[in-house]
Automatic annotation (TrEMBL):
It holds the Pfam family GFO_IDH_MocA. Gene3D superfamilies: Dihydrodipicolinate Reductase, domain 2 (3.30.360.10), NAD(P)-binding Rossmann-like Domain (3.40.50.720). InterPro entries: Gfo/Idh/MocA-like_OxRdtase_N (IPR000683), Gfo/Idh/MocA_oxidoreduct (IPR051317), GFO_IDH_MocA-like_dom (IPR055170), NAD(P)-bd_dom_sf (IPR036291). Residues 139-259 form the GFO/IDH/MocA-like oxidoreductase domain. GO terms for molecular function: nucleotide binding. PANTHER family: CONSERVED EXPRESSED OXIDOREDUCTASE (EUROFUNG) (PTHR43708), OXIDOREDUCTASE (PTHR43708:SF8). It comes from the Bacteria. This is Gfo/Idh/MocA family oxidoreductase. Residues 10-126 form the Gfo/Idh/MocA-like oxidoreductase N-terminal domain. SUPFAM superfamilies: Glyceraldehyde-3-phosphate dehydrogenase-like, C-terminal domain, NAD(P)-binding Rossmann-fold domains.
Length: 348
């Protein structure tokens, strides 16, 4: 049964870095069902920028003060570095707020358990920003893979090439393992895993991984190769922060043909037919913020808020992404051996 909700939903941005300013805020400004009324950020210049862009917004120096003083909030949107996500999400849920959170939500099983319990107790939604599935090119690739255009899906490949220093943030927190929780496997691997899950429509049974680190002590992987075995198909990922250029590409292969993803093109090549090329106005690799993809994220968030029956679907997807990342690190430490998901971490 749908819940009756009063629109617009009143919310706060916690963290006002580049992803908040250039992705989340532009999306909210196109909506009538969401309204940002408060912002928290520890940096005075970022609070000033929030006040400049949103003259009516109330600004705070930390999230705790915001949560205490903004007692009428419907939701919070967490745009801080990953280290703080789980604690802030739990605090907001305990204050009765729905929560939208940048990825990764967390990597820790105990955090997921606490967050799931909090969503049930508070009767609130918790949604992680899985924005890449709303990129028009990638959404169309999923539709083609799932509707039988290429026949039974047999192979998925996805590559992410980024030069050193990519990321687009105000600081280099992505290169700090403590704040980022890891390296490219978390920053881009999280996106890659939920894309693969959507394309395959099933959960992998095993994976292996080999990583390259900036240094043994850093905890920040610069490159990752991951293999996955699904019940019905296989997948290969390659992610790097050491490329000469910036691009994404991939391939979805079936027994009747394949779909090639060429950053701003889909090439549909079916057996016995000339290839069909579909062009898109922007490369999926352009920029780091993608405000035009956030509309789908906000629709997903609103759906979980309004319909208790849909809650924790996104949370389950996020939990599986985190589990795959943990097991990929485990595989790397074991020399790249295959890890059977049925034998490892079956409970939180």
């Amino acid at each position: 049964m749908l819940e009756r909700i009063k629109l617009p939903l009143r919310g706060a941005l916690i963290g006002f870095g580049k992803v908040a300013e250039l992705a989340h805020l532009p999306a909210y400004e196109t909506r009538r069902d969401f309204q940002i009324v408060a912002v928290a950020d520890p940096l005075p210049e970022r609070r000033a920028q929030a006040q400049n862009l949103l003259p009516q917004v109330r600004v705070y120096g930390d999230a705790e003060e915001l949560l205490v003083r903004e007692s009428a909030l419907d939701f919070v949107d967490l745009c801080t570095p990953p280290r703080d996500h789980a604690a802030l999400a739990l605090a907001a849920l305990n204050r009765g707020c729905h929560v939208l959170c940048e990825k990764p939500l967390t990597l820790e099983p105990r955090d997921f358990q606490a967050l799931k319990e909090a969503t049930v107790r508070a009767k609130r939604a918790l949604v992680t920003v899985h924005n890449w599935k709303y990129a028009p090119l990638l959404a169309q690739a999923k539709e083609l893979a799932r509707n039988g255009t290429i026949g039974k899906l047999e192979l998925m490949e996805w590559q992410v090439y980024r030069p050193a220093g990519s990321g687009g943030g105000l600081t280099a927190w992505r290169q700090e393992g403590g704040q980022a929780l890891g390296g490219i496997l978390i920053d881009h691997g999280w996106h890659a895993f939920y894309l693969l899950l959507g394309w395959a429509g099933e959960t992998p049974a095993a994976l292996n991984a080999r990583l390259v680190f900036s240094s043994e002590e850093s905890g920040v992987d610069q490159e990752a190769e991951v293999g996955l075995r699904f019940p019905s198909c296989q997948a290969r990922l390659f992610l790097t922060w050491r490329a000469a250029d910036r691009r994404n590409q991939g391939r979805l292969g079936g027994h009747r043909g394949e779909i090639r993803i060429e950053d701003d093109q889909l090439v549909i090549a079916l057996q016995g037919q000339p290839p069909e090329i579909r062009n898109f106005p922007a490369k999926v690799s352009t920029g780091s913020h993608h405000p035009d993809w956030m509309g789908g994220v906000l629709d997903e968030f609103l759906a979980e808020i309004a319909d208790p029956g849909q809650r924790r679907r996104n949370l389950a997807e996020a939990e599986l992404c985190a589990r795959l990342i943990r097991l990929a690190y485990r595989s790397h430490r074991a020399g790249g051996e295959w890890v059977d998901l049925r034998l490892h971490e079956t409970t939180p």
